[in-house]
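Researcher: Let's try something more involved. This one mixes different molecule types, so please make sure each is placed in the same coordinate frame as the others.
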Amino acid sequence: MWRPPQKIKWKTHPAEWPTIEQAARSRLFSPVQLGPVRLATRTWVPAMVPWRATEDGFVTEDNIAWYARFASGRPGAIVLEATGIRDIPSGPLLRIGHDRFVPGLKRIVEAVREASHGETKLFIQIIDFLGIRRRPEPRKFIERHLGITDRHRAALSLPADAPDDAVRSALLALEPAQLDDVLDARELEGLRMGARERVTDMHLPHIRELPQVLPPLFASAARRAREAGFDGVELHYAHAYTIASFLSALNDRSDGYGGSRDARVRLPLEVYRDVRGAVGADYAVGCRFLSDECIPGGSTVDDARFYGVEFARAGMDFLSVSRGGKFEDAQQPEIGWSAYPYTGPSGYECMPHHVSDERGPFGRNFEPTARIRAAIRDAGLPAAVVVTGGVHGFSQAEELLATDRGDIVGFARTSLADPDWFLKVRSGQGRAVEVCSYSNYCEALDEKHKEVTCSLWDRIDLDTPGLRLSTDGKRRLLPPAWRAPGGDEESPAKRPASTAS
Ligand SMILES: Cc1cc2nc3c(=O)[nH]c(=O)nc-3n(C[C@H](O)[C@H](O)[C@H](O)COP(=O)(O)O)c2cc1C
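Model: All components are placed in one shared frame. Result:
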């Protein structure tokens, strides 16, 4: 992953933990309404892909155990990882593109209800993404994948009737740097990064038709989510994926879905309208979108303020704000791997590492989120705003709420480091929290599509009989259960009184 050149090392500072009484009086542990859904507390586990699905997108026992483990810490809400809306092979990512996926998803819903004693609400993040190829062997790319044109013949000073094989041989004889003068930008990208589709590839029929294809796909996925028992859906409009690319300032489609902000927000609003039509008014629907793309020429917080108001005005119940995470500035992957949108400067903004710049890794998204929320409130709209990014301490979270920078606080890596953060802090046991170090060990596993775990717990008591281990056999897949002082983790007496309605 890219790191800021300043290389300033930051340490987490959770500050004072509250007593049980202070926690009970806090904003963080007070209820909040998201349209029809009431969260018992303003704590939120944002979507995180743990790489535990089957190759064909089904829920596994490890998925179920993972979400049950998070739910046992009783956050106000968990958002299930990005789950694909299409019925197409997409590796071990969860899918919801067909009714056959519903029974497995239902089992996660049931496990979360049981483990949280009915307190934690469960949302599912639904996603569409475009095609991306792995970075090829250069020879293979030139021999097989590159479409030969007269432009190549001219650049290589070959006769207009030179056969394709002669052009390929001439290309193979060049030094890598000389290819810069012969191949165009997209061909060079195909060679050096792996070819990647864009929403602006209007010459491709399936890309041209996205505005017709995506609303019903999202709507069917949302209908299945409701059927599976989720409390709501989060439309993935963030990072490097299809809808975020429509919102991007780089989207210059000329079919009324690109160019101006009004045109760029059109498809995301049409998707929402169809989703709402499929699930009804009494179901929670929101989205995750970016406060800033953090790439040259990309959308900024001014665009995000506009989008936030449009989404809230259309009727979304919540808006979860992320940042960066784009392909445009991703680092070159190794041969045989595809580009990962969290490896460049925009990726850093999405999941900042503890080695940072003067601004540090904690809170880079706080002010932009506050500005989006202010625009929504100025427009008189009630959508709840989830603020996320580097939150690990109670006072830090409490201050975000006190200063109107969000209505709900997201704890992603913090909850990976310690899914009992919520239960511990709420029951006056904050000192027992394992605080995330922001080493991005989890993110490195995500990049390699390995089961995501945390270095703070994945080597503990590996010889426990029956322990589920990662496929490399070296790591436990779940953190050990927390034993509250003077009791065991199963004891309801040790749990704070529920504020759930
Ligand atoms: C392993 C991992 C997987 C993630 N997967 C997703 C995802 O599926 N969808 C999403 O919107 N964000 C995803 N994220 C980003 C997080 O939701 C969150 O925005 C980011 O980690 C910053 O928040 P934090 O500082 O609280 O960790 C992922 C993050 C990690 C570490």
